[in-house]
Amino acid sequence: MDLNANAFLNELVDRGISLASSTNAKEIGYLAMIYELLNGRGALENVYKERSDKESWLADEAQTLYDDLSSQIVLGDDYPTGKNVSEIMTYEEIKPKTPFKWVRFRTYPQAGWFFANENKLTLGVAPSSWTDGSYRAYQIKYDPEYLRTTFTNKGYADKNAMIGCEIWRSYSSTDGGMIMSWFRVKNNSDSSIIWPIHMYFCSYPSWGEYASAAIQHDADLYEDKTPLALWDYTTDIGDGNANFNVYVSPKREVDGKVFDTSSVIFISPSGPPYSSDASRHSQLGFYNNCLDLPEGLEYIDDYDTVESFKYPSGQY
Questions:
Q1: Do the beta carbons of residue 152 and residue 103 sit within 8 Å?
Q2: Cα torsion through 40, 46, 50, 52, rounded to 10
Q3: How many Cα atoms occupy the beta-carbon half-sphere of 47 within 13 Å?
Q4: Which residue blocks in 22-111 are alpha helix, DSSP H?
Q5: CA 29 to chain centroid
Q6: Which of 154, 160, 108 is nearest to 285 (CA)?
Q7: Domain residues of the chain, as ranges?
Q8: CA 19 to chain centre
Q9: Which of helix, strand or coil describes residue 279?
Q10: 237: which strand partners?
């Protein structure tokens, strides 16, 4: 793992944070390690938030990592000046703004369906159902083990995000390209909160490919209830953009367990083929600052640790 301190420093600049000119390479190494901890290790991040000795504990973790990886820190001659190091060692300033998981896949390579048309690698839905069967986001399996299996890419965004886009030559109506994203959102209030979405997508219902979105509260998952369908698009379009609302439920207690977080899934398939060259394309993106959550909501980075109620051993 190559850790580039310059990239870390650029991130600080982007967030309006600067370092004192007297900051030495070792101190910057500590901060880069802290940055890695907060951005890439959800479990450590959760522990960090619960400890009373946050700075000293995190400094110890950073020291250990620095001792092991200091030779891999790449430090340039120039770095920002202005603020003392101790002033920026806070969780709120360095933590990731919008963590999410995403995946992009195709379904049919002209020799038969991918993955033998089994559903275990594609959210509990067979590949054929995604591009020939009109399946939507509310029909997937929301158990974390299924979600973790499919959503193997992780990203961080600010208020907007380009999740993915691609173009290819289409050889049949069977294959299609899917782009999907998974967000974990917590409601800190006592009532439902509306999260307005502005999304770029493609959709081709004529071939059984629907853009859609759905949500499932962890309490509903625990009680084995059906996810809530939020939106789908029923018209063929290659350059769609839509506005719709996500309704995020507040915390609930079930069987003595408190649940306060929901999984939100957004799906975009491919658009219609162009007659001139038979090319098709897919896209998924969020705009108009819609990833800046309303007051009372926050992103939770527990993708690797959220509990599976049906498959606690990880097997399904």
A1: yes
A2: -10
A3: 10
A4: 25-40, 42-50, 54-69, 91-94
A5: 27
A6: 160
A7: 5-93, 98-299
A8: 30
A9: strand
A10: 203
pLDDT 10s per residue in the chain (316 long)? 344 556 666 665 665 555 555 555 555 655 665 655 555 444 344 444 454 454 455 556 555 654 554 444 444 444 444 444 344 344 444 455 799 999 999 999 988 999 999 999 999 999 999 999 999 999 999 999 999 999 999 988 989 999 999 998 888 888 999 999 999 999 999 999 999 999 999 999 999 999 999 999 999 999 999 999 999 999 999 999 999 999 999 999 999 999 999 999 999 999 999 877 789 999 999 999 999 999 999 999 899 889 888 776 666 6
Which amino acid is it at 79? Y
Cα-trace Rg, the chain: 22
Give, in order, the Cα–Cα distances in Å from 243 to each of 22, 231, 246, 286: 49, 9, 10, 10
Q: Contact 175/288 with Cβ under 8 angstroms?
A: no
Angle of helix 25-40 relative to helix 42-50, nearest 10 degrees, comes to: 100
Residue listed under structure tokens 């000795």: 53
Total-model pTM: 0.74
Long-range pairs of 66-69 with CB within 8 A, sequence gap ≥ 24: 66/26, 66/29, 66/30, 66/33, 69/1, 69/3, 69/33
